[in-house]
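2024-03-11 09:14:02 INFO worker-7 job=invfold-0412 stage=load source=structure_tokens
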């Protein structure tokens, strides 16, 4: 049997780009993209992507060249997920919340050959390019993406997105993918604990992760997907390609304002959306609306509390909790629902949903190990270890960073740096970042567990817990709290008393700091490094 060769008929390199021509052939007359008054079909989207790919080749873009883009969730950003790899180039979606210096660092490190920028971010791009030029690094070609529904006329440079689409030849011969290990995308980490690193995805990994997400989440044919998740987050958790695979509708909105989200859900009959828990806060802060029909939501990026899940479930969102990271091509674990859990009270169901769950199907394995012995921790829901992953959807590696690659890959595993436990049913639950675990007198304290208790206090809107020095115990918890509203009164002593009734004494914060807002990075994640710096100068209270 070993003599049987691979043939063009039985071996084709895996790539998520292949979902688009299939969508055009099978779902050609179905709506592919909705944006304002704009409507495209899958046939039109396929044609536009071919045209853009042809124009990129005419600009001199070649295999493995990086094409960067700064844009919100607009049709152009969706199309580039197919058009850029169609030209054998590598797509680099840049977080729109970054500052000019951070954008310049990405452009320099990636050596981007072309930069597309949405009209709203022209000033950001201009400032970043000046920094690149001052560093003596060649600047990329620049193309502006104007609003396709209501053009503004904003320009920066000579190239313009819609002109490139119009001028491209849809019948032009495009490069064929030969090796599925070739790079399809380059994404940069958020840099919450270190400098951002360039994470390289392969065509194979992105393809398998796309299928894994669709299956794990149970996405059927013809979903109507609302883009509340930025497409620059791990390529929309690979669901940019996944919507083409299922012939879905991509409803694009520029901002996640509560009114816009609720209006889109009502107007278009949204069936699915993805978001970080912060979007739930936006939707619940105003007048939460009861949904006419259930909307399935995949959430991740930060662990949501059981209380928050309880609230959003009550108005009609059907939440699946996931866990992932840039290096895993997005979600790596999903809390797959079990029918027997439907019989449980809603608060108990919410507690179960707060767990991250089982590995997605694109992974070969996920585990929680003692990082010193590399042995599995007991499945008791208490023993802490590092979450590790293995599978074809794991990144190829960090771009031009061999030291980071050696640290990330160990013993046949990808080391996530996240601390978790395994429950008796095999479901994994994240507890902390390894750097966020507080070690007090030899006891490990998960900051997330303390934060969850603090968020149960009626006057607390947001909470972050970090380690602060202690002369006897080494470290002790310090809590930074945001009041729920202007009328809420947070008394430090009351908060401490509240915690004492709900947790072990050694876990109770010995210092409580009231702040107007928690510091966050460009992905909306709390920058605990800044809070730890502040906590170093505090003196712990006696309890």
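2024-03-11 09:14:09 INFO worker-7 stage=emit residues=543
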């Amino acid at each position: 049997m070993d003599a049987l060769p691979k043939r063009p008929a039985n071996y084709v390199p895996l790539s998520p780009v292949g979902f688009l021509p299939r969508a055009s052939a099978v779902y050609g007359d179905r709506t592919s993209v909705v944006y304002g008054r704009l409507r495209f079909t899958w046939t039109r989207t396929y044609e536009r992507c071919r045209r853009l790919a042809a124009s990129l080749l005419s600009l001199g873009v070649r295999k493995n060249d990086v094409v960067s883009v700064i844009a919100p969730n607009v049709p152009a950003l969706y199309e580039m997920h197919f058009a850029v790899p169609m030209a054998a180039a590598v797509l680099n979606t840049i977080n729109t919340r970054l500052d000019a210096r951070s954008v310049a660092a990405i452009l320099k490190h990636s050596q981007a050959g072309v930069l597309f920028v949405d009209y709203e971010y022209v000033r950001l791009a201009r400032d970043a390019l000046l920094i690149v030029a001052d560093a003596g690094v060649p600047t990329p070609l620049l193309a502006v993406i104007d609003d396709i529904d209501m053009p503004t006329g904003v320009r920066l440079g000579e190239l313009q997105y819609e002109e490139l689409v119009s001028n491209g030849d849809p019948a032009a011969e495009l490069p064929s993918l030969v090796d599925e290990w070739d790079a399809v995308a380059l994404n940069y980490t958020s840099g919450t604990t270190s400098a951002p690193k360039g994470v390289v995805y392969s065509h194979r990994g992105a393809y398998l992760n796309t299928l894994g997400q669709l299956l794990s989440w149970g996405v059927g044919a013809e979903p109507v997907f609302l883009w509340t998740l930025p497409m620059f987050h791990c390529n929309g958790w690979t669901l940019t390609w996944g919507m083409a695979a299922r012939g879905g509708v991509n409803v694009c909105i520029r901002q996640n304002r509560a009114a816009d989200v609720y209006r889109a859900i009502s107007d278009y009959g949204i069936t699915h959306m993805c978001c970080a828990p912060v979007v739930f806060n936006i939707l619940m802060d105003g007048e939460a609306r009861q949904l006419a029909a259930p909307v399935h939501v995949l959430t991740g990026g930060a662990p949501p509390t059981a209380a928050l899940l309880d609230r959003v479930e009550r108005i009609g969102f059907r939440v699946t909790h996931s866990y992932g990271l840039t290096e895993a091509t997005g979600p790596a674990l999903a809390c797959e629902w079990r029918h027997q859990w439907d019989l449980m009270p809603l608060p108990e169901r919410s507690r179960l949903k707060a767990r991250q769950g089982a590995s997605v199907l694109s992974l070969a394995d996920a585990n929680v190990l003692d990082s010193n012995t590399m042995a599995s921790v007991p499945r008791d829901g208490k023993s802490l270890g590092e979450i590790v992953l293995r599978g074809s959807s794991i990144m190829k590696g960090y771009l031009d960073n061999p030291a980071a690659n050696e640290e990330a890959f160990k013993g046949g595993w990808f080391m996530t740096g996240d601390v978790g436990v395994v429950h008796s049913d095999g479901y994994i639950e994240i507890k902390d970042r390894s750097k966020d675990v507080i070690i007090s007198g030899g006891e490990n304290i998960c900051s997330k567990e303390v934060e969850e208790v603090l968020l149960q206090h009626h006057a607390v809107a947001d909470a972050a817990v970090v380690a602060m020095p202690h002369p006897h115990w080494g470290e002790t918890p310090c809590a930074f709290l945001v009041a729920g509203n202007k009328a809420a009164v947070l008394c430090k002593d009351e908060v401490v008393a509240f915690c004492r009734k709900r947790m072990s004494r050694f876990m109770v914060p010995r210092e409580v700091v009231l702040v107007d807002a928690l510091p966050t990075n460009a992905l909306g994640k709390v920058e605990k490094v800044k809070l730890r710096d502040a906590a170093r100068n505090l003196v712990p209270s006696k309890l």
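2024-03-11 09:14:09 INFO worker-7 stage=report msg="The chain has three domains: 35-176, 207-434, 438-535."
2024-03-11 09:14:10 INFO worker-7 job finished
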